[in-house]
Design a protein that fits this description.
Length: 253
Amino acid sequence: MDYEIKTKGKFSYIEEGEGEPLVLLHGLFGALSNFQDLIEHFRSTHKVVVPLLPLFDLNILDTTVGGLAKFVHKFIETQGYTNLHLLGNSLGGHVALVYLLKHPEIPTKSLILTGSSGLFENGMGETYPKRGDYEYIRKKTELTFYDPAMATKELVDEVFEIVGNRLKVIKVIALAKSAIRHNLGEELSTLTLPVCLIWGRNDTITPPMVGEEFHKLLPNSELHFIDKCGHAPMMEVPGEFNQILGAFLQKLK
């Protein structure tokens, strides 16, 4: 399904449905398509919002987790959202955590993390292969999922296009290094809002122990594992993901 991409100033975003805002933050190689099932499921109960994160549009000094968290803060401020639920996958989860740590004054009702970086992650690797190595990119994209068939040609093509662009590669590496440097730890214990951790049991990028560590550090968190599932549960097993998330949100009404 195609959604209308709205623009306001420098922000581009999808906004579907009515109710409490459910703001979705995608990862480093993420796209709006990652959240399609989630948008469809929750638009009947929430205002589902997906801002397009400017992964390749910030100047190189701001191409950091902190730079993206600042962007998210300005977006939420501009939109005037209150009582929002913030959901982040992979790098998006890391950005959500940094945003919340920097802005405890903003009324955020809950946080949902799935395959989030911030403690530990296996990235694309320290270096990129020569541009044009499609097979390498296909195999790397497959590692995101438990079922390699989830790495469709369309998805691999999107990643291939990014790593085929020299400037984008520089920004991807800058963000990946920033994520590793901007490691979170004990300060997470200051986040007392309700947190739902939804993790793929077969995630090789942020393995299950990362979910367990977040659970230990975040005082008001619950942890759910999904079997036969990798780094992007909302894409790979949307039915089970939406069921867990729906039950969590229901408790907060």
